[in-house]
Specification:
four-stranded mixed β-sheet; about 400 residues; alpha/beta; binds pyridoxal-5'-phosphate; seven-stranded mixed β-sheet
């Protein structure tokens, strides 16, 4: 018998070698208590959270929590059914209305996760003989959506407008074309040149889907993302998003003005063949989305945090993913996995949690410490964070 697990041997060995150095397992952290969007207890210690994607700090918002509790009392703990059977409650319609209002779009379809939103929309709308042209650094859920569908997949170099244009021009005449982009790329925290890319896509007869998972709530005047900030939201055919970041719960969605959009509810398998979100989740999401519309002050403070942390880390001598802060994600480059894990552990011992990211999730085999800021981090906390990076960086030899 061939052991089906033998393909994982290289990863098992790499993991064992890392843990043999005595370092704490960076992929097995337990939050013993979560006190707020910015502080938790880990290993019995107060820990500042700098790796949660809770950009707008909505998880403990009193209105959001109250809405969830009320829905739990009024509608029970779950729907036990698909959206197209017994799984659509008034709360699901209300959160879709909140999304339509937030984006000022005609249609909104809520999925159980953002992963399923990409999986479902991409695999359903791009069929046999169509082409999906996507940035090579796209999220796993975008690649999995492509793998699940039957379209031809054409990747282009990250954020390269000319490369996109070249690929588009090579698509056979008359074929359907879907260009898939992200507003903010979550590994390096860099922003896409959507204005130019959307223009090039439209000039070449393609539809455009933009995943705004890491920009919703924060980027753009009303928090609608990079497409809003760059003035092209009207030209984007589909926006994909998640409730698991700025919205502060779980779920995913697609919004669109396409006149035939609603047919997706019958043909999109990751929407049809799975249970819908629990009533408490859609109630928290709807409340959160409505509050995000009027959160300009929080957006301003989050930009201040991002700028302060970026400048401070640079001054300490760390190499960062972007020259300027472009989003609420700041990626600190590590020379290799061993050093990255040591730095991650040293930060945790100081009382700071960040994400350790490594291949294959990262581009070009990089190891990164990904920091994601929250609008509720105070100026003092950002100062504390920089002090912890200085101490851990010196202790591990990452900086001198
Ligand atoms: C760009 C992007 N799209 C989609 C997703 C999936 O979101 P969810 O957590 O709702 O499945 C993520 C999550 O990490 C993401 O970064």
């Amino acid at each position: 018998m061939t052991d089906l697990f033998s393909k994982f041997d290289p990863l098992i060995e790499q993991r064992a070698a890392l843990l043999d150095t005595g370092v704490t397992d960076p992929f097995n952290l337990v939050m013993e208590k979560v006190e707020s969007p910015t502080v938790a207890i880990c290993n019995g210690r107060r820990t500042i959270l700098l790796g949660t994607y809770n950009y707008m700090g909505m998880t403990f918002d009193p209105d959001v929590v109250a809405a969830g509790k009320k829905a739990l009392d009024d509608f029970g703990s779950g729907t036990t059914g698909s959206r197209v059977l017994n799984g659509t409650y008034v709360g699901h319609k209300a959160v879709e209305q909140a999304l339509k209002d937030f984006y000022a779009m005609d249609h909104a379809m809520v999925f159980s996760t953002g992963y399923q939103a990409n999986l479902g929309v991409i695999s359903t709308i791009a069929g046999k003989d169509d082409y999906v042209i996507l940035d090579i650094d796209s999220h796993a859920s975008i690649y999995d959506g492509c793998a699940m569908g039957n379209a031809q997949i054409v990747p282009f170099r990250h954020n390269d407008i000319e490369a996109l244009e070249k690929r588009l021009k090579r698509v056979p005449e008359g074929a359907g074309k879907l260009v898939v982009l992200e507003g903010v790329y979550s590994m390096m925290g860099d922003v896409a040149p959507l204005k130019e890319m959307v223009a090039v896509s439209k000039a070449n007869g393609a539809m455009v889907l933009v995943d705004e998972a890491h920009s919703m709530g924060f980027i753009g005047e009303r928090g609608r993302g990079v497409a809003e900030a760059q003035g092209v939201i009207e030209d984007v055919d589909f926006i994909i998003g998640t409730f698991s970041k700025s919205v502060g719960t779980v779920g995913g969605f697609c919004v669109s003005n396409h006149p035939k959009f609603e047919i997706l509810r019958l043909v999109c398998r990751p929407y049809v063949f799975t249970a819908s979100l629990p009533p408490s989740v859609v109630a928290t999401a709807a409340t959160s989305i409505r509050k995000l519309m009027d959160s300009a002050d929080k957006r301003g403070h989050l930009w201040e945090n991002s700028k302060r942390l970026h400048a401070g880390l640079r001054q300490l001598g760390f190499t960062l993913g972007t020259d300027e802060p472009q989003s609420a994600i700041i990626a600190v480059m590590m020379p290799d996995l061993a050093k990255g894990a040591a730095m991650w552990e040293a930060l945790l011992n100081e009382g700071l949690y960040v994400n350790l990211a490594r291949p294959p999730a990262t581009p070009a085999g990089m190891t990164l410490l990904r920091c994601s800021l929250c609008a509720l981090h105070t100026e003092e906390q950002v100062g504390e964070i920089l002090g912890m990076f200085a101490a851990a960086g010196r202790a591990t030899g990452c900086i001198s």
